[in-house]
Amino acid sequence: MSLPAFCATTGMLDAAATAARLPWSGLADEIAALLRDGSVAVPARSMLPLAHGGSLFVMPATDHSVAMIKLITLTPGNAGTGRASIQGDVLVFDCATGERRLVLDGPTVTARRTAAVSLLAARLLAPAPQGPLLIVGAGVQGRSHAEAFIQGLGVREVWVASRSSASALALAAQVQALGAQARVVADADAAAPHCPLIVTCTTARRVVLAAAPRPDAFVAAVGAFTPAMLELAPALCRHLAQQGQIVVDSPDAGHEAGDLLQAGLDVAAMPVLGDVVQGRWTAGSGPVLFKSCGWAGWDLAAARLAMRTAMHDA
């Protein structure tokens, strides 16, 4: 079935226009709908190492009517230079005609779909979704998760821990602008017992959280997405596996979830978010760790929602 003719001319959307088409609650709902859609096909993503320590990611996905491919570069060396670490685009096509319909801003899609996946997981799995929320890492994902949890979950208090005090203060100001209380903390481990919601979203290759969380905690770990990366201490991951439960975002986490792999855990045997959405798995007692590595299906969900919001605006 061909998509509507309103977008016969490709829409090139900048960061602001892309964000406007991806509201938090709507995107979380679209991700849940995608996980129930049997027509979705998502091959493994390709990663090509680049000179100077960067990487090129190629991530395609399709359903019965929309095809998309995300092309982004990750350049850690850009940190502190004023250039973005993540750059690229998401191209959206009409399956029936083969026409390109939209070009979305890749970093915006990455930021919003990652936080929306965490939001959906928190809605389904968090024992105490009211917060307070502790965010470890005050970069793009820290800002996205703060906004998603405030606007989509109703969180009213956010604690921020970051290696950069300037970044932590900037995020705290943004939290306050969204109408929530903010507190900057120097030690994430010391703050963890006070916060039933925790998000780690750093690009660190060293441990940023080691303290055991509360029995009613929901922890979303999104920063480590290769086997060589980790944010959570191995002992913490093993504690969560023994005292609570661990859910991963997709089967690809079996070879990508550095936190869990370095803890010696059998990631392939863990439930995925789709199992929760489809009612095949329910959480028991104890803390919950949601480990997110990224998956092109989340980008496809964003592409589907952007197409519908563009139709509504036409």
Automatic annotation (TrEMBL):
One of its GO terms (cellular component) is cytoplasm. Its EC number is 4.3.1.12. Keywords: Lyase. GO terms for molecular function: ornithine cyclodeaminase activity. The keyword Lyase applies. The keyword Lyase applies. It comes from the Bacteria. Transmembrane segments: none annotated. InterPro entries: NAD(P)-bd_dom_sf, ODC_Mu_crystall, ODC_N. This is Ornithine cyclodeaminase. It comes from Verminephrobacter eiseniae (strain EF01-2).
